[in-house]
């Protein structure tokens, strides 16, 4: 399946282009209904474009048109990122904004979702990114198979896959196709409170019930199970005496947005160094002899 077919996957486009993107709208199949425009304005309200950012429309996205691949400030080729989302997509949005703002030496070239109506998918459409529905299911019959997804990711020349609130287990073939090149973010200090069933507020409820005094997000490489790949980065937040799961979730999510961007920035600048025992470290941007 080619990228053009992918771009038309999922529900109909429900938003108008961000005004900043209108110069690229020729040929795009976008609804200009006033209601949709309002939705898009809300969804895309925080988008900031780099002055020279090249952003294609959903209808015209393809491997050759999606983004430039020149070297960034680091002198390293800009990387091509696919982000997988099942929900609101706030981490996806922070990574996308960091890419547009120059903090991340890469470009999000596709959004993959099992929930074509989710907030993350809507944000992607509003910002002219191809949305790929995966996997195929009763509620998402337009979805693609693992082989088709692999072909799409290859066509788009994706360097790295970033899971950001994607709830399905990633099939082994996909994990194998992106060795040391697939990250996930989890809202607890792994290996605690991870694995099947630990997602969303369930994680924070379990942390509070355990009496743990600290929590925080973990960015880790993806293997074939839930939340067991090697840890790359973590942040710590306190668990307060009267915390509700929602309050703790908000404190952790704030840190997620920082730590995921920093980890992805390191990945895109080739600053991940693998220790002999298989643990990944991040080399400091400013001091090549310092690692975290
Ligand atoms: C985050 O808490 C992340 O750690 C977990 O799923 C949530 C996604 O949130 N994997 P969002 O969709 O990025 O807002």
Automatic annotation (TrEMBL):
The keyword Chloroplast applies. Keywords: Chloroplast, Plastid, Purine biosynthesis, Transferase, Transit peptide. PANTHER family: PHOSPHORIBOSYLGLYCINAMIDE FORMYLTRANSFERASE. It holds the Pfam family Formyl_trans_N. Its main location: plastid. This is Phosphoribosylglycinamide formyltransferase, chloroplastic. It comes from Triticum aestivum (Wheat). It is found in: Plastid, Chloroplast. Its EC number is 2.1.2.2. It is an enzyme of class 2 (transferase).
């Amino acid at each position: 399946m080619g990228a053009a077919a992918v771009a038309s996957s999922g529900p109909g486009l429900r938003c108008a282009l961000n005004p900043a993107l209108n110069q690229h709208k020729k040929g795009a199949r976008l609804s200009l209904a006033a209601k949709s425009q309002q939705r898009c304005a809300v969804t895309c309200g925080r988008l900031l474009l780099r002055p020279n950012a090249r952003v294609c429309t959903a209808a015209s996205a393809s491997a050759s048109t999606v983004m430039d691949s020149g070297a960034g400030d680091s002198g390293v080729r800009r990387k091509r990122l696919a982000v997988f989302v099942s929900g609101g997509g706030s981490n996806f949005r922070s990574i996308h904004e960091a890419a547009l703002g120059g903090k991340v030496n890469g470009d999000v070239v596709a959004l993959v979702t099992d929930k074509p109506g989710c907030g993350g998918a809507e944000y992607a459409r509003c910002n002219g990114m191809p949305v790929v529905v995966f996997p195929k299911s009763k509620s998402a019959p337009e979805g693609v198979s693992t082989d088709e997804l692999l072909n799409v990711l290859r066509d788009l020349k994706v360097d790295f896959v970033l899971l950001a609130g994607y709830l399905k287990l990633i099939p082994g073939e996909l994990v194998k196709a992106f060795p040391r090149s697939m990250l996930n973010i989890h809202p607890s200090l792994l290996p605690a409170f991870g694995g099947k069933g630990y997602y969303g507020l369930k994680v924070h409820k379990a942390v509070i019930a355990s009496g743990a005094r600290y929590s925080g997000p973990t960015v880790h490489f993806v293997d074939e199970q839930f939340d067991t790949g090697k840890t790359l980065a973590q942040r710590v937040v306190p668990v307060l005496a009267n915390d509700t799961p929602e309050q703790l979730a908000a404190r952790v999510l704030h840190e997620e947005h920082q730590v995921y961007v920093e980890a992805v920035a390191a990945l895109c600048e080739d600053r991940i160094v693998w220790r002999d025992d298989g643990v990944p470290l991040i080399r400091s941007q400013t001091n090549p002899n310092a690692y975290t």
